[in-house]
Design brief:
Chain lengths: ~350, ~400
């Protein structure tokens, strides 16, 4: 008999004030910018000041979000850490690469290189917490967070571990944003105002952030929801079949899903996938990327939204519900993809 | 627990373009550590590397890929090795195959080439998105049409050991019946200069576990294992190469890059893997050590080996003097060697060794040694405190 997996703690650092206050308090939808800057917490409340100076934004956000999520779950030391990141430590990678190129491979110091490895965030969290358990980092585009979530959940299901810290984190640099706009990954500025329902052009409104969660085989008074299943594919020939197979392996029918959280992002390359999925599901649809922007681990923010909706039993109008939410929300399906690839499904259940 | 078995493998490294070519070089004691030829670097005359001499266009041509396409060297090497590993699968099996691939550099080779050109060179922009490691994994998956769960792991020099462990979870939970696991990393200026700035690159052939070791040789390569449950392998009548019997992943939580003098993380990873394999330390017949030939690693790993095995240390060697340190691919390259060690009943030699480290007084096996091998323990340690151990065992029906 496999163990059930519960989400007992969470924290989202995003382009909205999600770090402080209640769920989706003081939210402002920004439709003018093609890049939404992250609202950073006061790191000094969580990390010793000398350490802060050395850390890149991804590391700082990761550590703070971890500590907050662990605090909420009343867990001091997780048994394992799994982090997903689409781009890794871009700030230090770029810094070191520029030094290599600008100085023709001479006079280099190793600090930026050391901090450039993709597992720096997970490694620094382990150092900070003194967590000696299994430590994994997944770098898999739009399914980076889902990979981390799935692997940690499998370890709990198998009884290898009893709890885990799981997160998704991404940071940007000005140059990275500039070239992403050149490559149509980010929508051009002049197309403002932006809307996730307007997918006439390629690209998304981009952002960054960190969302971390505590998974456990034990429910407590802070439990948000149960994580029933996660699945993802590199390439999905038929989105309908992908969703159908996922539901049937969980013994569910389309009408058993009460809410669908769609990662709709206004990118023309993703339009067909989101249209198919949303048409197939007859339940109420909710959205989140108009609040968070899109980035490789934006679905971790979506996961945070879904956890909160399930625990509070309340669907804020800010999530732009299409359809009337059923009286009792039991099953929530999260669907995402990016640039026509990396489709993912997460099933959360009320406890 | 349902045993997990290895039923096929593929590899490309500086010592060979296939499993059999690699085996030949190992048996003949022929390393391939040279100056850089394909990659242009001002460090060329200062370092020695395990470079694969096939150029990108030769690799692409032989794989039937348009050389002008956006494939990074990491993706090309990955496709090369994966092709050998899944050659025996039917089209339907590939459609449901899972894939967990590791890399540390992804498309960095292209990024460092075009970094300042993106604003003006429209043609170069196709390399922007394919910089990310996940996209390199997708390129490999798409080449074959791999249709199951695909993901990528990046935990520095232990990456492909961890990719293999993720694969075991997918099998043990029944999510997949077959998964291709391993890693691929290409040499690039970014990593060469990174390791050079840490002053841990040797200007000569590396000397793992030697008292006077001078640092590591970087290498490049890719290797993949096809793993499945024993039940699935038997049902399909596949030849089993070895059992993946143990694995351990710990974080030392000691320092961002260095290993502790006590070898805590390494010892914990080995202990965990031995425990999962349900064997005792004296059942290990051969240790394929991480053995990078840096001061720090070899000392720390030696201490950890002493802690686990006491005065009865089994035959051990580092094969990095043959191939160089292939970073994210190292664990899977050495997993292939560990399985070959079982199949051929040999311990591969640790080259260039002269004198043991005084504190631990460990002497690796320096010549090819023939003996029956039942259990091989393979170590991989990386930046970020990541310590990983895998154990491969002889398959008995």
């Amino acid at each position: 008999m496999k163990n059930r997996v519960y989400i007992n703690g969470s924290c989202a650092i995003s382009s909205q004030p999600t770090f402080e206050g209640d769920f989706l308090d003081n939210i402002n939808e920004n439709v003018q910018d093609n890049v939404l800057p992250v609202i950073e917490p006061n790191y000094r409340d969580y990390i010793a000041p000398p350490a802060i100076r050395r850390m890149s934004r991804a590391v700082k956000m990761g550590i703070v979000a971890s500590k907050r999520a662990l605090g909420e779950a009343c867990l001091e030391l997780p048994e394992a850490i799994a982090v997903g990141t689409g781009m890794g430590c871009v700030q230090d990678s770029e810094k070191f690469l520029r030094a290599v190129l600008d100085n023709e491979e001479q006079y280099l110091t190793p600090t930026a290189f050391i901090q450039s490895t993709h597992n720096t965030v997970a490694g620094q969290i382990a150092l900070e917490l003194q967590c000696k358990g299994a430590n994994f980092t997944f770098v898999d585009g739009s399914t980076s967070f889902e990979s981390a979530l799935s692997d940690a959940a499998m370890q709990i299901e198998l009884g290898d571990i009893r709890n885990a810290l799981v997160g998704g984190v991404d940071e940007n640099t000005p140059y990275c944003l500039e070239i992403y706009e050149l490559d149509n990954i980010i929508k051009p500025r002049h197309e403002a105002p932006f809307s996730i329902t307007d997918a006439r052009s390629k690209g998304v409104v981009f952002s960054e952030g960190a969302s971390f969660f505590v998974l456990s085989d034990e429910r407590n008074e802070h439990t948000y929801a149960a994580l029933a299943d996660v699945d993802f594919r590199n390439d999905v020939p038929d989105t309908g079949v992908f969703i159908g197979d996922f539901l049937s392996r969980n013994n569910l029918d389309i009408d058993d899903i009460d809410l669908m959280l769609s990662g709709r992002n206004g990118n023309s390359e993703d339009l067909a996938g989101f249209d198919t999925a949303e048409t197939l599901m007859r339940c109420t649809k909710l959205y989140y990327k108009h609040l968070s922007g899109d980035y490789f681990t934006a679905s971790a923010f979506g996961f945070w939204v879904a956890c909160n909706v399930l625990r509070s039993g309340h669907v804020p109008q800010l999530l732009k519900p299409v359809g009337t939410p059923s009286e009792e929300v039991r099953n929530v399906l999260i669907y995402n993809q990016f640039r026509g690839k990396g489709q993912s499904l997460i099933l959360l259940q009320k406890v | 627990m349902q045993p997990i078995v290895v039923t096929a493998m593929g590899i490309i490294s500086s010592i060979g373009n296939s499993v059999e070519e690699n085996l030949y070089s190992l048996l003949e004691g022929k390393p391939q550590i040279s100056r850089l030829d394909n990659l242009r670097s001002t460090l060329r005359d200062n370092i020695k590397v395990g470079e694969i001499k096939l150029s990108n266009s030769e690799l692409a041509k032989r794989l039937g890929i348009d050389p002008r396409a956006e494939y990074s060297r990491t993706a090309l090497l990955g496709i090369w090795a994966a092709k050998e590993a899944i050659a025996g699968l039917s089209a339907d099996e590939v459609k449901s195959l899972g894939f967990v691939s590791a890399s540390t550099v992804g498309g960095m080779d292209k990024t460092e080439q075009f970094f300042y050109e993106y604003k003006t060179n429209v043609e170069a922009r196709r390399h922007i998105y394919t910089h990310n490691i996940g996209e390199n994994t997708r390129m490999i998956a798409d080449y074959f049409g791999i249709g199951g769960m695909v993901t990528a792991v990046s935990t520095a020099c232990s990456s492909s050991a961890n990719a293999i462990m993720v694969g075991t979870n997918l099998l043990r939970t029944g999510r997949l019946s077959q998964v291709l696991v391993g890693g691929s990393d290409a040499l690039c200026k970014f990593t060469i200069n990174g390791f050079n700035s840490l002053m841990i690159l040797s200007d000569d052939a590396c000397k793992p576990f030697d008292r006077n070791r001078k640092g590591l040789n970087l290498g490049e390569g890719a290797a993949y294992l096809l793993i499945e449950t024993k039940e699935n392998a038997v049902r399909h009548g596949r030849t089993v190469l070895a059992v993946l019997s143990g694995w351990g992943n710990t974080n030392e939580a000691y320092h961002q890059t260095a290993s502790s003098a006590e070898g805590d993380g390494a010892a914990a990873a080995m202990a965990k893997a031995i425990d999962i394999a349900s064997i005792a330390p004296h059942d290990i017949d051969y240790i394929n050590a991480h053995g990078t030939a840096t001061d720090n690693n070899d000392m720390s790993e030696s201490v950890a080996i002493r802690r686990i095995f006491g005065n009865e240390v089994p035959d051990f060697s580092s094969t990095k003097a043959f191939t160089g340190h292939t970073l994210a691919a190292a664990s899977s390259v050495e997993a292939v060697y560990s399985i070959l060690s079982i199949r051929e009943s040999v311990v591969f030699p640790s080259l260039n060794f002269e004198n043991p480290i005084e504190e631990t007084n460990l002497t690796p096996q320096t010549t090819l040694k023939h003996k029956p091998i039942r259990n091989v323990l393979s170590n991989s340690f990386g930046f970020g405190g990541n310590c990983s151990t895998l154990i491969f065992s002889k398959y008995e029906k």
